[in-house]
């Protein structure tokens, strides 16, 4: 089968012809119909998340097939799989655990001590087929097609969890930093659907700002031409923001948006751009603000976002469908800030 693989750090992905894996036990072989392209794949190709090196520090073994936003049809199943049939159209939660560690036992399998992350340390969906370690991480699609569903398995699950951690309600105001991208447009939609909060979308390109507006943001700020803190003070009448979801966590965003928090505000840190947080500790105490990390999502988050999307409450903004062979171009678009919404590869 054709597969686009990370073979060497810092170099373009390579199209290879590799064997089709054979499922056994609880495993399932999926014929990939769509694979969303995530900014994490930029970091994978670069070989680092900030100062953390994917090989030396995180234990990723090369070569590996990238692609963790997965939807497709069941091609073959191991003998322990129940409840599914060949040909079923499914989306796949790629953030899987081995099932026995403390975090798996408490339902936080995405934090597993020995994770099975598809497209990271297990072969992913930039291929014609992908092997799923356990069928329990699949969701049978009823209304969505594969292209619509694939981004939900990362951009959807990640922002679903981040919004949940933000503790929003109709009295609250949320800032989404990076609101015009694949995660940002999902965060805006999810927050509106589940909380009714007021949403301020922030980005640095006019095209991205307009995309955030189309996603449902109540207000938008182009931080490249406007003073975001002044605009936030104006919109909130001086109170500040109840929550920020930072999908970048760059030096620029972490130097600006924590200053926008209201008393008891929450700063949800999602992005992996690799900056360090510098914030005067007494201000955290005096205002009772919180800085909270949020990593992808657990199985409950996965089921939550899938049900929300199948009910028509949210929908990924697919802006470009591309061929498998164009994976490097899609990642280039993200790395060079030329993409809005979500790009999807179709093998």
Automatic annotation (TrEMBL):
Pfam families: ADH_N, ADH_zinc_N
InterPro entries: ADH-like_C, ADH-like_N, ADH_Zn_CS, ER, GroES-like_sf, NAD(P)-bd_dom_sf
GO cellular component terms given for this protein: cytoplasm
Keywords: Metal-binding, Oxidoreductase, Zinc
Enoyl reductase (ER) domain boundaries: 10-345
GO MF annotation, one: alcohol dehydrogenase (NAD+) activity
Cofactor(s) for this UniProt protein: Zn(2+)
Family membership: Belongs to the zinc-containing alcohol dehydrogenase family.
Record's protein name: Zn-dependent alcohol dehydrogenase
